[in-house]
Design brief:
The structure is a homodimer.
Chain A (H helix, E strand, L loop, with lengths): L25 E7 L9 E6 L5 E4 L4 H11 L5
Antiparallel strand pairs in A: 1-2, 2-3
Chain lengths: ~80, ~80
């Protein structure tokens, strides 16, 4: 779940991703498309309360479900 | 495309949304699910280069397409 330094070191932001389904703890989700510095999409969730940032696995079905729900105007 | 003050005033963040298809200018997209302060999902894109934040319409087909592409590990 650790994040590499943000903005200073232009590589991927995520080293590990969260495997537990934390949908209901999510305050927001940020999607970073592939770019010259990082060839894979990265998804970073900000948690309610603590504001902690956690990397999610873009290929995990539960993560796709969370995003679908948010777009459908539902809480994850 | 203006954003209400962030974090100080707990209401919706977006007043207007961008209608032009700006997919290729998008550096990241943040999704805010419905919550006690704002009953609708909000989507805020950060633009490449300027880092400017722009609200997108969660119901617009092109916005959904952008998010689908990012999740499918493609640039929007």
């Amino acid at each position: 779940m650790s994040l590499r330094g943000l903005g200073v070191d232009p590589r991927c932001r995520c080293i590990e991703t969260e495997s537990r389904r934390i949908g209901k703890h999510i305050e927001s989700v940020e999607l970073f498309p592939p770019n010259p510095h990082c060839k894979d999409t990265e998804i970073i969730a900000t948690l309610k309360g603590t504001g902690k940032e956690i990397c999610l696995d873009p290929t995990a079905p539960w993560v796709k479900k969370v995003i679908e729900k948010i777009i459908a105007n539902k809480a994850p």
